[in-house]
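Handout, section B. The chain below has 404 residues.
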Amino acid sequence: MDAMKRVYQHLVEDHFVTNRQMAFLSGPRQIGKTTLAEMLLPKAKYYNYDRTDDAVRLGRGADSIAADLGLDAPAMAKCGVIFDEIHKFSKWKRFLKGFFDVYGADLNIAVTGSARLNVYKRGGDSLMGRYFPYRIHPLSVGEVADGPLGLEDEFRNPVKVNEETIRLLLRFGGFPEPFLRGNERFYNRWKNARKDLVFHEDLRDLSKVQDIRGVRALSELLAARVSGGINYSGLATDLQVAPDTVKAWIGLLESVYEVYSIRPWFMNVANSIRKQPKVYFWDWSSVAEGGMRNENFIASHLYKSVQWWVDSGLGDYELFYVRDKQQREVDFLIAKNGTPYMLVESKTSMDEPLSPALTHFQGVLKVPYAFQVAVEGEYSGINPFDYKGRSVRISAADLLSVLI
């Protein structure tokens, strides 16, 4: 199957044209990071720490890699090199710092990994100023619809989305291979194989945790509780471990891109909930069909947009939710440069009445945009951002088509 062109291709191409820094491509296993790097640097030398010969060569240091690349030959100027899974190397930061400082002027360097590249605290001096991060997310409605998007654009113009696109994304998730195949039997086998790799290889390489079965059981419990705040004590009782162990295990699941968490927004919200995060899955198809999967689907689209805007240099964006002690809640709040920018409430049907909490928090927080988004609504062609200052009901097809 031919590789699908991703929305990230133009962004990272621009990186290598305009920046001297290394490009760090991180994201879930099998999301297409290595494929993207190889498309952008087709003549690059590829080193994978999971291959024994490459691990040995990397262990010998920067000069050994430089010699293998032939960097003493003029023809090799501005060639490319890809380091894959190098974060499993205990001295990876020290290696990259030394390699970049000596040879970076002659190379386009891409570093890819299936665990968050900031979780390995050992390894020497900081890489600050030597790389720019690019977080690679699953396919989204806007990416599949493929409307034009400039690197300085926050949103696309509305582009038609058919119901089948959303149905397939909801059913098979946004990982490229199962989505493009759209085959139930393949999807089931792919999902099981990926889970085994994440829990029995990635977690093992990342940490010294012994109870892999317990971490996997926690993942299953979290999938049944998407959209609710995390109750550490309740999960600890179910798993017969300490609450601090649950917190540590959720951190591990975040580190290998199994889940991500969003915190409550509490500034200027009286009696707000402040400490209880909500957890969602990178593969929303891991969540049972219905309202929880729909909410995870919306969450992942907003999270992708937020991280794209940050990685593109458009500003400082973060994703939150908002809830107060009177049980008023809106599922998502995007803050832009520290100021509430967009509220999004996830619903299944366009027939559901407008949430009173949405209008309440829009007024309290003075949020420019407030949307109640129906996953089952049809595409209408409206531009959601024409409705500034109003709480409105729109379809997911309309909102998500203009996002990343």
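Note. The first strand starts at residue 22 and ends at 26. Compare this with the example in section A.
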